[in-house]
Each structure stands twice: as C-alpha cells, then as structure tokens.
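Hello forum,

I keep getting stuck at the same step: I have a sequence, I want structure tokens, and every attempt I make locally crashes halfway through. Rather than fight my setup again tonight, could one of you with a working pipeline run this one for me? It's a single chain of 121 residues.
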Amino acid sequence: MVPSTSDSPSSDSSRSWQWDEVFLHARREAWGILAFWAVALVWCVPVCYVLGYERPGRPADPSLVWGIPAWLFWGVVVPWVVAIGATIWFCFGVMKEDRLEVDDERREEDDVAEAHEESHG
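Reply #2:
Ran it on my machine without issues. Output:
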C-alpha cells in the first residue's frame, strides 16, 4: 500500500492508504488466470472421465479423432490449444506493463511525509 497524504501536512489523522496500481493490476491478472485455470479444470476432468472411462455397454475400442482417442482429443488436446490461444491473447491484450520503480514525485512526497512524522513523532 502507498500512503496518500492530504494537502495539509500537519494533519496526521487525514493520512489514508491506497492500493498501488501495480498491485491492483497484478491482482486482477492473477484472478483472471485463476478463473481460466478453473474453467479448464472443470472442462478437462469430466470430459476425460465421461469419454474415457470403460463402462458396460460401451465398445472396448475407443472412438478416434484424427487417430487420437476421442477422450484424449476432446479432454486434453482441444483445451491445450484453446489455452495456448487464450494465453497469447491474455499476455498481449489484457496484461498491462507497469513501472515498478517509484517516480521522483512520489519519492519526494514520501520523503516529506517521513520528515513530518519524525519531527512530530
């Protein structure tokens, strides 16, 4: 968190905290990645189970798609290709590049706030 100072440096009670933009972007991106992972999990596990599990009345030989067992194709290959496309889209379209260093103006504000705390603390 980054301290936000008010116009009046003598008022300690008016000092409040704000989330840093870099943290907010990173948190939003992490939630997006987690949501995508959860969707992939909810797709892959049931599809592989339903199409790949042997049950009475099902033929012993699995059905094939392009020479690959259907459960593997629909439960692993297709989600993998979708995940690669989604990752490329997310990295180049959604993620933001943030400056990690503190700019001079913010550093000066922090120095003033620290000096004020030391003189009145």
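The beta strands are 2-4, 16-18, 64-65, 68-69. If your local run keeps crashing, start a new thread with the error log.
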